[in-house]
Amino acid sequence: MVTTEKLAALSVLATHIAQGAVTTQKIAPGAVTAEKIAAGAIITALLAPNAVTAEKLANDIPYTKFGLAADQVRHVYAGTTEPGAELGSDGDIYLMYSE
Fold first, then answer.
1. Which of 37, 68, 78, 83 could cross-link with 87 by S-S, CB 3.0 to 4.6 Å?
2. How far is 21 from 32, CA to CA, in rounded Å?
């Protein structure tokens, strides 16, 4: 049964949804949503044909071969905690992740 209280609650709800807001009803059926993203969803099959992958990189190629000086080379570090000041050099990249 529709009551004054239910109508008032619906009115309040309607005023709280911003005009043009993206709601569940406005998301396309094939859209990628959090529910559709599985752990490890980015797989090799989804990479572009000429994408650079770990298999295409080598550890033994000197950076000088590409005309880079030592101060132009950046390192990427990863860990689960905030990095200490002693880690790396200015300009290096630190990726923090959670387990």
1. 83
2. 18
Residue with tokens 């239910």: 6
- Residue linked to tokens 């033994």: 60
Between CA 54 and CA 44 the distance in angstroms is 11
Coil, strand or helix at 71: helix
Q: Which residues pair with 78 in a beta bridge?
A: 95
Q: Distance of CA 67 to CAs 29, 58, 64, Å?
A: 49, 17, 5
Ordered alpha helix ranges (H), 1-99: 4-16
Three-state DSSP class for residue 85: coil
The model's pTM is 0.32
List pLDDT tens digits, range 22-64.
Answer: 666 667 777 767 666 665 565 556 677 777 677 777 777 776 7
Q: Are 45 and 62 in contact (CB under 8 A)?
A: no
